[in-house]
Structure formats: C-alpha cells, structure tokens
Amino acid sequence: GAVVSQHPSRVICKSGTSVKIECRSLDFQATTMFWYRQFPKQSLMLMATSNEGSKATYEQGVEKDKFLINHASLTLSTLTVTSAHPEDSSFYICSAPPPGLVAQPQHFGDGTRLSIL
Amino acid sequence: KQEVTQIPAALSVPEGENLVLNCSFTDSAIYNLQWFRQDPGKGLTSLLLIQSSQREQTSGRLNASLDKSSGRSTLYIAASQPGDSATYLCAVEGGGSEKLVFGKGTKLTVNP
Q1: Cβ-count burial of A93 within 10 angstroms (0-12 exposed, 13-18 middle, 19+ buried)?
Q2: Is some CB atom of chain B closer than 8 A to the CB atom of A108?
C-alpha cells in the first residue's frame, strides 16, 4: 500500500482562492518532506523542503508568502497556495525520505492536480 | 547547478522489443541516482536506485547502469510490454541533501 498519502488529488477553484494540500507519511515518521511542482512537459522542480518543528526552506524563485508550508507533526506536512491564480495551475507532489541509514528511494504521494479558473 | 537531461523525450516501440533510456547529469558529485515511473496524472513509482559507489542495479526486466565519472545512466527494459507504457524519470540526489533533481522524462509507448 501507499506509504505517503497526498490529498486532495484534484482541485478546481476560482482565482483568488487559497488551497491547502496535505501530505502524510502513513507508516513512518518524516522529519523532512519535499514539495515539488510539475508544469506540463516539464520536469519536477523542487519548491521547498518542509522541516518538522522549524521553518521550511524554499528554493530560489519560490515565494514563501505565496506557498505556505507547515510541518506540524512527524507525519504531516501541508502546502497552502494562497490567493491562487491561473499561473499557479500545476501538478504538485510531495515526497518523504524513509528513515534509516541505508540509501532508500523516497516515497512520493500521488500528487495534486490544481486548476485555477 | 545540477542539470539532468533525458534522451529521447519520447519513444514508441512494438511489444517484445528491448529498449534503452538515457539519462545524463552535469555534476558527477552525486549521492545516488534513481529511476521512477510516472503514469498519466499520477505520482511516482520508484523503480531502481543506484548508489554512487555502484555500477548497476537490476529488478526483473529492468537494469539500470551508472557511470558517475561520465555523468551517464541508462535504463534497460527487456521484452517490453504494453503495461510498460509510462513516462520514465531519472533523478539524482546530491550529497547529503536528499533533494532530487529530475530530468524531463522519456515518454514510452509500447504498442501491442
């Protein structure tokens, strides 16, 4: 079964709406989670690193006041797209590295398709 | 800045054919390289992870190789099936950060 759950899978809303996306690790604790964005025919681009108990780290060019990240517990990170506009329409996906010393692939959520009208 | 390139962007083959997908990266100082599969509108499924000290990894009909010094990796798919149709993504992880840098992917279509 899925070890990272992302919700909702699809959102369609009007311009100016704020949208919250949740990312949960189901059977492990994640002190760090990552948020990516994928525009059509483009690669996944890292937006920010979500850190449990501290501020998120944003990649260059990503507005921290527009994309609010909260990592309130060891199993939940949320991304809120504030006052969303059509150019924010994209595929948002989160990932969490599993715990342990041995290199393991990150677990990804199923993504959220955001469409702003 | 790390850049990952995947060639070809799209590939269409008849069922049963063996095929190779290519990935190159500009900075050889990587921690590992990962291959993922992405179905339309879906999340990512991890296929193979190659640590920087390894040369290849195999899983079923999939074999991935890594030549870190030349900045190249290949994903070999044997005896392709229609169910293999998907976009295949290559990603590299830099030392210690766990951040992944992705290529744009290769869209594979296997025709029955």
Answers
A1: buried
A2: yes
